Amino acid sequence: MAKAYEKIADELRTEIRAGRLGPGDRLPSEAELIRSSGRSGPTVQQALRVLQAEGLIEKQHGRGTFVRRPRLTVRRANRRYQWEKDRARAPEEQRLETGATEHDTGLEVKDLVFHAAYREIEAPGEIASALGVEKGTPLVERTYRTRYSAERNPFSLVTSYLIRDLVKGNPDLLDETKEPWPGGTWNQLHTVGIEIDRIEERVTARPPTVEEAAELGLPPGTSVLVLRKSAHGTDGRVVEMSDITMPGDRTEMLFTTHLERW
User: Fold this and answer.
1) Is the pTM of this model over 0.70?
2) I need a labelling partner for 41 at 20 to 30 A (CA). Which of 86, 128, 201, 219 fits?
3) Cβ distance 30 to 40 under 8 Å?
């Protein structure tokens, strides 16, 4: 037999899925739900927690509880890297037309809100090891946040690392005000004579930190996908590394592997 909070949750779920409560609509207040259901406050609160955990509703501080708008899904396919490499040497006018985020989402440049921040750091041990350099090596740490203008949360949390000595020949690569850079990292490296030969990606999943959940706007119980991406130059060394934290509720990873024919 269904518990009282499950009955309340089921009634609201039915209203949402039938479209009688649409994305962005405000749910009745807890007080109103207590009166209409004849149940206690804790019972109503438990019902709302269930729907929030399912990603159907969200609480907005000081405003109430609303039907959660479906978030744009990002499809990240491994074929994107050949597209990025081909684009790196394209004329600037062509590179300005679109970027990797637009490629993954189907959006246009005008649909996006972008932020970048740079700082110079000394490579900590774990990052130094991943880049194949000595601990303390000067790095350029770059953080990126890109979001759809119709949404409040970024698609992912990106931290990228460049070895400063590899890119200092072009001072623009140390300047965050040059972002967004037409052609992205691939073109940036091309300006200092570096060609990317291969990309290695390692994907894991874990619960988000409190800060990650808040910044990504994750429903309770949603995991994040954590991608470590290493770009290797044609001489074999790692020339750029990124740690990318992606929301598990709206990210799709697509890998296509071409096999040699018999």
Assistant:
1) yes
2) 219
3) no
**What type of residue sits at position 1?**
M
Sequence ranges of the domains in the chain:
4-67, 74-254
Residue 158: closest CA among 225, 232, 78, 242: 242
CATH number of 4-67: 1.10.10.10
Q: Summarize the chain as % helix, strand, coil (round to 5).
A: 35, 30, 35
Question: How far apart are the C-alpha atoms of 42 and 220, rounded to whole Å?
Answer: 18
Look-up of token digits 């994907």: 203
Count of other CB atoms within 10 angstroms of residue 40: 12
Fold of 74-254: Chorismate lyase (3.40.1410)
DSSP state of 19: T
pLDDT at 55 exceeding the cut of 80: no
User: Of 41-50, 54-63, 234-243, which gets the smallest average pLDDT?
Assistant: 54-63
Distance between CA 146 and CA 158 in Å, rounded?
9
Which residues have C-beta within 8 Å of that of residue 51, sequence separation ≥ 6?
9, 12, 13, 16, 57
Query: Which residues neighbour 236 within 8 Å (Cβ) at sequence distance 6 or greater?
Result: 197
Q: What's the confidence (pLDDT) of residue 134? A: 97
